[in-house]
Specification:
Layout (H helix, E strand, L loop, with lengths): L3 E7 L2 E6 H16 L3 E2 L2 E2 L9 H32 L3 E8 L2 E7 L5 H30 L4 H25 L6 H40 L3 H27 L4 H4 L13 H11 L3 E6 L2 E7 H5 L11 H4 L6 E2 L5 H10 L4 E6 L2 E7 H18 L4
Helix pairs in contact: 1-2, 2-3, 2-4, 3-4, 3-5, 5-6
This protein binds zinc ion (ZN).
């Protein structure tokens, strides 16, 4: 996720804050500070207390921070189970609607995924339930200090139970959607199971938007939009997986590969790029891959130095490689995760081909056209 700020590291996982989170935090703090509505016995803010506005804002901010720590715990629970199941987590980002754990590679084994999805809402419920008796006891006390404590415990309890309940809804992009998919995967297969969970999510979003419109609740409409977009993203990801299913890098790579040597000048490289219409080249010394050079690397060099600067001085030495048996889906994930355009395919240590983002997009387009021509196969 772009536009994120790294704030620390927990269990070896980088914790990041998205810019949208900096927007939502004051909003939550403000709402907690001045709300005085009671719902199911909970007082949802410090608004009714005999305090000045600054004190209320400070309390609101503390409550908002406590709530986001609880969101972080929810995400850490997902990550903990993911790591135990052998997945790699590249980070946890707190953003507008809570948190998101970035799990590398899509889990395909159902039991692991169900548990991984389930522990998030379970953590939120647990936090909510732990604060429930505290809230209940504090509610009975009188005095300003006790009232503040009661409202704080109530806010944490109420919003964590709400977060758990929201996430257990069996539809994408909520955690419950992942549990539903894991349950359906055995009978329907990964792709059909995802489609079902996505359709449920979209239907729910439409129903929520209609309800939100009828009762004039902008929050509900906003959440509906978030669910609809999230479900759509999951659907696109699955379509890509479907199109690339069964394909390996060896079947889609470009071969033979044009290569350059570290000693060639940038002028020579540019001439090759124009005549051969490639945007990037593996750099080889003899038989050995020593780097990769792309048009972006060239752009960093002023034109006056094109004749004397060498490819070796501007190339990226650290090259990401795959083998011909690497699944095509893994290749596309590696490209987007590292925000690069191409991967070098090494076949028993020698350059066997190159696979680029445009090769993969080409396959996706051809597959989509095939489906349109013959109709859905389901
Ligand atoms: Zn979750």
């Amino acid at each position: 996720m772009k536009a994120s700020l790294r704030v620390g590291r927990l269990m070896g996982i980088p914790i990041k804050i998205h810019v949208s989170f900096l927007l939502i935090l004051p909003l939550f703090a403000f709402s907690f500070a001045f709300a005085y509505t009671r719902l199911l016995g909970f007082t949802l803010g410090y608004g009714g207390l005999p305090l000045d506005d600054v004190a209320k804002l400070v309390l609101g901010l503390i409550a908002a921070l406590l709530f986001f720590i609880a969101v972080l715990l929810h995400e850490l629970a997902h990550s903990y189970v993911a790591i135990r199941n052998g997945y790699k987590i590249s980070g946890i980002t707190l953003f507008l609607f809570g948190g998101v754990s970035e799990i590398e590679s899509h889990p395909k084994d159902a039991p692991g995924e169900a548990l991984m999805a389930f522990v998030g809402p379970a953590t939120s419920f647990a936090i909510g339930l732990v604060f429930l008796p505290a809230w209940y006891l504090l509610e009975g006390m009188s005095g300003l200090g006790w009232n503040i404590a009661a409202i704080t415990a109530g806010l944490i309890s109420f919003y964590n139970i709400l977060l758990g309940a929201f996430n257990i809804i069996p539809a994408f992009p909520m955690d419950g959607g992942r549990v539903l998919r894991a349950v359906l995967v055995k009978r329907l297969g990964f792709i059909r199971a995802t489609t079902v969970a996505v359709q449920v999510g979209k239907m729910m979003a439409v129903a929520m938007a209609v309800l939100g419109f009828m009762i004039f609740n902008p929050w509900l409409m906003f959440i509906a939009l978030f669910i609809y977009i999230g479900a759509g993203e999951e659907e696109r990801g699955t379509k890509v997986a479907q199109a690339l299913e069964g394909l390996t890098v060896g079947q889609i790579m470009t071969t033979p590969v044009s290569v350059v040597t570290p000693g060639s000048s940038i002028r020579e490289l540019l001439d090759r790029m124009i005549t051969e219409k490639h945007m990037g080249y593996p750099v080889v010394e003899g038989d050995k891959l020593v780097g990769i050079v792309t048009l972006q690397d060239v752009q960093k060099v002023p034109a006056s130095r094109h004749d004397d600067a060498t490819v070796g001085s501007i190339m990226t030495a650290d090259v990401l490689t795959v083998t011909p048996d690497t699944p095509a889906m893994e290749a596309i994930q590696a490209l987007s995760r590292n925000r690069i355009g191409r991967l070098v395919v090494l076949d028993q240590g020698r350059i066997g081909g190159i696979v680029s983002r445009s090769d993969l997009i080409h396959i996706l387009e051809v597959r989509a056209a095939e489906r349109r021509a013959i109709g859905p196969k389901e």
